[in-house]
Amino acid sequence: MTPSRPSWKGDAALVVCAVGWGATFPLVDAAMRSASPVAFNAARFLLAAAALGWILVVPGPRAVRRAAGWGVALGVLLAAGFSLQAWAMPQVGPTRSAFLTAFYVIFTPLLDWLATGRRPPASTAAGALLAFVGAGVMSGVGLGGSPTRADLATLAAALLFAGQLVGLHAALPGHSSRALLFAQVLATGLICAAAAPLLETVRFDPSPGLAARLLFLALVATALFLGLQNYGQTHTTPTRAAILFASEPVWAALFGRLAGEALSAHEVAGALVVLAGIVVATVHPRSGGGSPR
């Protein structure tokens, strides 16, 4: 499937992902009180893969086998990224985690440039820089705060997520987006399941609350939203996708506010800068350079 030029439908799909993923940070934070991070992600992604089993019928097992190599590569990035993020979540809190994760808005164009030699358009680069500055202001990093090990783990997760965005864009032209979705979700679950007993003391304390969070994160945040990401990225560049995803910490902050979490002045200011970056990057994009191949 060859990516087409940016379209409002692709942008809308990615914005829906950003809104939905913004709501997941408090859920993951709560889940980490009852489960270890790698084991929880194994359950999350294997359940999501089971829900996506219909892909073995349409487009079929042959398409999935063709996508298996890319699925494993993308699965490694997702397994490491989600596990690092979940491990750090109880230490940094869901709101700060969302802001630090959004640093992939600057990692993505850099990785894409390194991988393809394709320099991002000036408007996209300016928007990425604004969004990056906004995320930094929202997190407090760069305003006198010192990053902790958990902060650095979350930033490493952001780098891995940026790699997944760039890798997915490279894989989409030659494979079914549905087959890629199933392959990477299944690979992520299997990698986490194999790694959990090696990396952590596996903990999984069943409860109705944990089951509800697991179901939402597996079926909606993973199976549905990763499918929307695959669709959206067939209509845009990885850098543009990262810019749209940069609204994720804004939504996370808003959901946190609805749940009773107060926003500081620098968080509100940072959110406005992130939104400004999105507008700069997505309004009147330059034609030609930086468009999907």
Q: Could you explain the architecture of this structure?
A:
With 293 residues, the chain is mainly alpha-helical. It has one domain (8-282). 74% of the residues lie in helices and 0% in strands. It is built from 14 helices and no strands. Mean pLDDT is 84; it is low at 284-293.
Output the keywords.
disordered C terminus, 293 residues, single chain, 0% strand, mainly alpha
The N- and C-terminal alpha carbons lie at a distance of 11 Å
Helix content: over 70%
Number of DSSP-assigned strands = 0
Could you tell me the strand content as a percent range? under 5%
With helices defined by DSSP (H or I, 4 residues minimum), what is the helix count? Answer: 14
Low-confidence segments, given as residue ranges, are: 284-293
Radius of gyration: 18 Å
Helix/sheet category: mainly alpha
Number of self-contained structural domains: 1
- Mean pLDDT comes to 84
What characteristic shape results from the CA principal axes? globular
Briefly summarize what is shown.
The protein has 293 residues and is an all-alpha fold. The protein is built from 14 helices and no strands.
Q: What's the arrangement of secondary structure elements?
A:
Blueprint lengths: L7 H15 L1 H8 L5 H15 L9 H6 L1 H25 L1 H8 L2 H13 L5 H18 L9 H23 L5 H23 L8 H26 L4 H8 L2 H11 L6 H18 L11
Helix pairs in contact: 1-11, 1-13, 2-6, 2-11, 3-5, 3-10, 3-11, 5-6, 5-9, 5-10, 6-8, 6-13, 7-8, 7-9, 7-12, 8-12, 8-14, 9-12, 10-11
